[in-house]
Each structure stands twice: as structure tokens, then as C-alpha cells.
């Protein structure tokens, strides 16, 4: 597998939209479902442009033969009291699950956080029945800090989420 993990570029905008539309329909674990990620190419380009030069945000993609097969993005706080912490989202295309790509993406975020002048803690929220993702987070040192009741509503059903965090040792 010709796997590359690299920061996203503005020129990835079109491929990113295709990727997001695909993963939206592959699991019920994300904050958006099939057909819900409606974003124009123009908006995606300006979003990716806004990431460039923003020191407290990162987005990295995993590619195989120039196709996006995974993604991680982190948003840190903007104010003095919140910039030390942020939340991330991660996904891998289903045909590439179980090949270590999620782990490589999350390790990339942790390495980035260690080098960041701001980040001292990484948070996340995950469905409490998303065993695969919880397994990955625990493996890389994240600890459960709480349970958020009715955090999502998917197909009319409330879903509880775990709140997890990782302290970044510098
Ligand atoms: C969660 C997700 C990102 C994991 O990516 P992945 O590339 O399949 O994960 P990896 O192959 O790197 O596996 C890493 C670790 O996850 C855990 N894991 C993977 N599959 C698992 C399973 N079926 N059960 C339990 N743990 C599992 C293991 O600890 C594994 O490490 P190991 O292989 O050394 O034992 C991916 O499955 C995905 O995109 N799911 C849909 C979207 C999603 O749930 N996103 C997270 C929302 S919070």
C-alpha cells in the first residue's frame, strides 16, 4: 500500500468533498450522514485557505495512490483561556479500515500537538458504542472523562457519547 500522511492542501478541495460524501454513508458514527455534507467547491477552497497559517488548527489526510482515504482535523481554542485545548475528528474510508491508517493519523496529531506552542490537551467525543474508535483512542493513551447523554440524534434515536482526553506531555 502506497500510504502517505501529509497536511491537506488547497488543491485537495475537490477530492476532499468526494471523500466526505463517501464516508458520510459508510457509518453512523459521524456528526453528518449521507447527503448532509453539502458544501460548494468554492466554500471548501476558502475553508482550506483559512487553515493555512492558522497555528492552532490542523488537518491531515492519508492518501493511497493520490486518493484521499483518511482524514484528521483538530481545532484549538482562539482565546487565551481556551487555546491550550481543542477537539478533533477522524475518519478512514471503510475499505481501508483495520490497516493502521487511523492510528497513523492520530499519532500524527499527537506529534503535532507536542510541537505546538499552544496545545496542552486533546479532547474528543465518540459514540459510546463505537468500539473500534474507542479502542484506537485508548491505545494511544486517551482516557474517558465523562459521558454526555443524548449528544447526538441519529435516525430519531438519541445517542450517548463518551468524552475522552489526552494530556500532552512536552
Ligand atoms: C475509527 C477509525 C478512524 C479507525 O481507523 P482504522 O484505520 O480502522 O484503525 P486502525 O487500523 O489504525 O486501528 C487502530 C487501533 O484501533 C483499534 N481497533 C481497530 N479495529 C478494532 C475493532 N474492530 N475492535 C476494537 N478495536 C479496534 C485497535 O486498538 C487498533 O490497534 P491494533 O490494530 O494495533 O490492535 C475508522 O474505523 C473509521 O473511520 N470509522 C468510521 C468513522 C468514525 O467512527 N470516526 C470516529 C468518530 S469519533
Which key features would you list for this structure?
4 helices, 36% strand, Aminopeptidase, globular, alpha+beta
Number of strands: 7
User: What small-molecule ligands were found?
Assistant: coenzyme A
The overall pLDDT, averaged over residues, is 96
What percent of residues adopt helix (DSSP H or I)? 25-40%
CATH class of the domain at 3-119: Alpha Beta
CATH-level-2 architecture of the domain at 3-119: 3-Layer(aba) Sandwich
Relevant CATH superfamily of the domain at 3-119: Gcn5-related N-acetyltransferase (GNAT)
The helix/strand class is alpha+beta
What percentage of the residues does DSSP assign to strands (E)? 35-45%
- According to CATH, the fold-level topology of the domain at 3-119 is Aminopeptidase
From the alpha carbons, calculate the radius of gyration and give it in angstroms: 16 Å
Sequence of strands across the biggest β-sheet:
1-2-3-4-5-7-6
| Amino- and carboxy-terminal Cα gap | 33 Å
Q: What is the overall silhouette?
A: globular
Largest sheet: 7 strands, mixed
Written overview of the protein:
This protein is an alpha+beta fold. It is built from four helices and seven strands; from the N terminus they run βααβββαβαββ. The chain has a seven-stranded mixed β-sheet, sandwiched between helices. Helix 1 (13-24) packs across helix 2 (41-51). It has a domain at 3-119: Aminopeptidase (3-Layer(aba) Sandwich). The structure holds coenzyme A. Coenzyme A is lined by residues 27, 29-30, 90-92, 97-103, 126, 130-133, 135-136, 139.
Topology:
Blueprint: E1 3-7, H1 13-24, H2 41-51, E2 57-64, E3 67-76, E4 85-92, H3 101-115, E5 121-127, H4 131-139, E6 143-154, E7 157-167
Parallel strand pairs: 4-5
Antiparallel strand pairs: 1-2, 2-3, 3-4, 5-7, 6-7
Helix pairs in contact: 1-2
The structure holds coenzyme A.
Coenzyme A is lined by residues 27, 29-30, 90-92, 97-103, 126, 130-133, 135-136, 139.
Amino acid at each position: 500500500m502506497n500510504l502517505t500522511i501529509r497536511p491537506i492542501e488547497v488543491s485537495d478541495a475537490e477530492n476532499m468533498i468526494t471523500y466526505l460524501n463517501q464516508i458520510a454513508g459508510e457509518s453512523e458514527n459521524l456528526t453528518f450522514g449521507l447527503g448532509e455534507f453539502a458544501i460548494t467547491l468554492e466554500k471548501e477552497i476558502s475553508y482550506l485557505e483559512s487553515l493555512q497559517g492558522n497555528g492552532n488548527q490542523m488537518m491531515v489526510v492519508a492518501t493511497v495512490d493520490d486518493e484521499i482515504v483518511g482524514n484528521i482535523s483538530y481545532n484549538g481554542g482562539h482565546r487565551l483561556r481556551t487555546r491550550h485545548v481543542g477537539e478533533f475528528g477522524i475518519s478512514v474510508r471503510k475499505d481501508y479500515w483495520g490497516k493502521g491508517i487511523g492510528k497513523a493519523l492520530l499519532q500524527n496529531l499527537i506529534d503535532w500537538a507536542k510541537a505546538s506552542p499552544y496545545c496542552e490537551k486533546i479532547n474528543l467525543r465518540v459514540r459510546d458504542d463505537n468500539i473500534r474508535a474507542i479502542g484506537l483512542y485508548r491505545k494511544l493513551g486517551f482516557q474517558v472523562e465523562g459521558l454526555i447523554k443524548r449528544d447526538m440524534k441519529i435516525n430519531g434515536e438519541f445517542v450517548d457519547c463518551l468524552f475522552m482526553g489526552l494530556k500532552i506531555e512536552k
